[in-house]
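dude i think i finally got it to work??
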Amino acid sequence: MSEKDVKKVLLCQRITTVCSVLSFVCMLIIAIAIVSIVPKVNEVVTNANTAVVQAEELVETGNDVVKQIDKLLPSLEEASDSISAVSKSIQDEGLAKLYESLDNLNKIDIKTLNNSIESLNNVVSPLASLFGKSK
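look at this
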């Protein structure tokens, strides 16, 4: 082998050594990054799993509430209908009594009532003065 060939071989060995060292350094950096990232990723995955479980429980609770509401709706509708019927009945009865009272008031002869009150006053006044009370 000539001296040029030996220099070429040495150059190739040096390049191979540098590439090997650089590859090792890159692999070391990647390993450190993986070691530092894996616990964080694991924590994120754990938190995500917990959130998913809580969301499932919340959805299940929501479904239970919806089922209970569905069961209550018919009875609520019946109660509403009953309240409406009772309210209408009370209103109708109240209006009937009001109209009856108005009719009775209209039947009263105010002039005769005033005359009766005046006559009563004429009878009671002498008695009041007799007992020492006057108007």
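Residues 97 and 103 are 10 Å apart (CA to CA).
im so relieved honestly
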